[in-house]
Amino acid sequence: MTERTGRCLCGSVSFKLTAEPVATRICWCRDCQHLAANGTVNLMVPADALSVSGTLAEHAKTADSGNTVTRMFCPQCGTHVMARSSARPQFRVLRAGNLDDPSSIQPTANIWAVSAPAWACLDDTLERVERGPQPPPPAGPANPPR
């Protein structure tokens, strides 16, 4: 396991991740497009393996999935750092661009591909999921984190 660190644009908020991501995907939902003007690369990580230094502001919204997604961002520079979903409170979704070494991860799928604009460059070697992905299996002896 590699420990990963990251921060917002101004450095007021930093984080440390001490577990491997459960999933790493490029999201093309309209909310992510509004946040980044493009698809966003996200890591789904266990909430208890993530520590945050600094203060985060929050904004909650009902997503296309029907879940309430609370996005957390730096109140100083506005960088969107992470999110949590009402459907999976045991996880956080980190923005890969905030990692100190974003090359340390590799996306495996494009999700919400149906919402991608016609000009989007979707990697054909990645799994394509038209809408929201299935939830990850619960971790345990039969299903270790992937």
TrEMBL record:
Keywords, ordered alphabetically: Lyase, Metal-binding, Zinc
InterPro entries cross-referenced by the UniProt entry: CENP-V/GFA, Mss4-like_sf
Domain CENP-V/GFA stretches: 4-120
Presence of keyword Zinc: yes
Species name: Roseateles paludis
Taxonomic superkingdom: Bacteria
Name this polypeptide is given: GFA family protein
Residue numbers spanned by region Disordered: 127-146
Residue ranges with Pro residues bias: 133-146
Family the entry assigns: Belongs to the Gfa family.
Entry keyword Signal: no
